Amino acid sequence: MNNAWIARRSLLGGAGLLLASPLGAQAQTAKPRVAIQTSHGVIVVELEDKKAPITSANFLRYVDKKKFDGGSFYRASRARGAPEKGSIQGGPSYRTRRFAPIAHESTRLTGIRHKAGAISMARNEPGSATADFFICASPMAYLDARPGAPGDNQGFAAFGTVVKGMDVVRKILASKTDGVPQNPSMKGQMINPPVAMVSVRRV
Questions:
Q1: Are residues 24 and 35 in the same domain?
Q2: What CA–CA distance (Å, rounded) separates 62 from 130?
Q3: Other CB atoms closer than 10 Å to residue 153's CB: what's the count?
Q4: Which of 68, 97, 104, 117 has the fewest CB atoms nearer than 10 Å to its CB?
Q5: pLDDT (0 to 100) of residue 183
Q6: pTM (2 d.p.)
Q7: Residue 185, pLDDT score
């Protein structure tokens, strides 16, 4: 039935068909976008929901339930000797109830690399990610999966990219970081005071 319908449409041709087709294709391929309104400005991310469906759906679940509202960017991890490079980490308020952890979508599976602007999930061991995420202010290839490397070589689960607001990302990265660390590895990385997430919504 679909093939017959397509055949009839192709016989019609004409300008109307040429104009309508790109619009239909755009509607089918549009990727979800989310605006993160912070006290420093707005960051808009576009999610790769087809390449990383589990991670994207999990992030959108927190967005739709408004669980990021009142959260913060609390960590700025800067490269030694290159403070303009690194990543910022954020998530819901510590009082927010989180959903169950999700399966790990490796960069080997998704093909989404940790380039400048990538948004990715924070985790401990693979399969432990819930809500906290980070945004790369610079390329960070060492966060990709590294098959053959010793130990935990599965990397982190990138699932989208910043399409607006990299200036805000860099501003947050440059924040004062003398807050109390959650563990020794975070010493000198805790933003003080944290940068508030005012609201996080689909756009």
A1: no
A2: 9
A3: 14
A4: 97
A5: 87
A6: 0.85
A7: 87
Task: Give the DSSP H/E element, type plus range, for residue 17.
Answer: helix 14-29
CB 68 within 8 A of CB 92: yes
Whether residues 137 and 39 share a domain: the answer is: yes
CB 199 within 8 A of CB 37: yes
Task: Fill in the amino acid letter for 51.
Answer: K
Amino acid identity for residue 103 in this structure: A
Q: What is the CATH number of the domain that holds 195?
A: 2.40.100.10
The alpha carbon of 168 is separated from its chain's Cα centroid by a whole number of angstroms, namely 15
Task: Verify that 174 and 198 share a domain, yes or no.
Answer: yes
> What values do phi and psi take at 83, rounded to 5?
-65, -15
Q: Which domain holds residue 181?
A: 31-202
Mean pLDDT, each 10-residue run in order, the chain (203 residues): 40 38 57 98 98 98 98 96 96 96 98 98 97 98 94 96 98 96 91 98 98
Number of domains in the chain: 2
Residues 24 and 37 placed together within one structural domain of the fold: no
